[in-house]
């Protein structure tokens, strides 16, 4: 066997075994609290496994209780802390066993499929079997939110029986929420409200003084200022928008959501579907700007299930953060001190991932607001970012 190449199944001692991958390499960088493990050939390893390189990297973080970060453009995949190559290779074996090998024939020639109910299935090209993965593993949440790209995705409206291959969500022309039939409005409403209630009960905010003046005078002043700001605020957002956005599906959704905040998650989702933008990342940004007002912290749990349904990728998460930026930075600037609580609510509802928030918090951008406002919002987020960092350090100490 050539140097640096190993069998994907390292328990198979056969030099003619056809499924091989590069030997995982590691490089320790930094020192003290900034020490980290870089995996220079993660892309090559992941390509051999037919998986995105973010999956095994995130798997390492889940298993080690360490924070991970990805820079796909520069091909850098990092696990915080110092971890030797032998340990990570053993963990990679675990990833392969759980998320690559067919449970029936143990062949690695599989694709991941995400079903309408957000279950993950391994579709084996070798034996034809479809076997589920253990949905209790933390990585499954990341996979569902960041499905593998699927260039062969079918556009036929009637293809509801066969999920699209290579990890894309199986869709009908009118996808139901949580796998329920579109006609079951009563049951659907109960499910969404129940899920939102559960998320609300489980939420535990960090005990910091991330507060704002809630006196009657302050509330009245903020409301008046917000109303005038929202009147001139483009709900579309983003520097690519034009004056025609008011009549676009996004502008229509934004106005409707503002006027019907009490309609509930089901009706909001139906409206987005009706306008043909329920799956679009920009719809998430618009709803973040239009569904919430100065009571956003209290309003997030009631809408958590809706956002959990609609936020399905890294791009969706960034759009959600952009919508929050515009809401607190332009419409309700007095709520900027509440940014940590807002982020915490979305994070604990499993809508925002820590690596996305960390990346957002350290990169000022003028995509959604002006640069100065962007700086203010990110500066306000520092207590939450610090909490994330300390939580990761605590997990590492426990190891």
UniProtKB/TrEMBL annotation:
W2 domain ranges (all copies): 240-398
GO biological process terms held by the UniProt record: formation of cytoplasmic translation initiation complex
InterPro entries associated with the record: ARM-type_fold, IF2/IF5, Transl_init_fac_IF2/IF5_dom, Transl_init_fac_IF2/IF5_N, Transl_init_fac_IF2/IF5_Zn-bd, W2_domain
Keyword Cytoplasm appears in the UniProt entry: no
Keywords on record: GTP-binding, Initiation factor, Nucleotide-binding, Protein biosynthesis
Signal sequence extent: none
GO molecular function, one term: translation initiation factor activity
Chain segments carrying region Disordered: 141-182
GO annotation, cellular component aspect: cytosol
Family: Belongs to the eIF-2-beta/eIF-5 family.
Protein's name according to its UniProt entry: W2 domain-containing protein
Organism: Phlebiopsis gigantea (strain 11061_1 CR5-6)
Source species taxonomy: Eukaryota, Fungi, Dikarya, Basidiomycota, Agaricomycotina
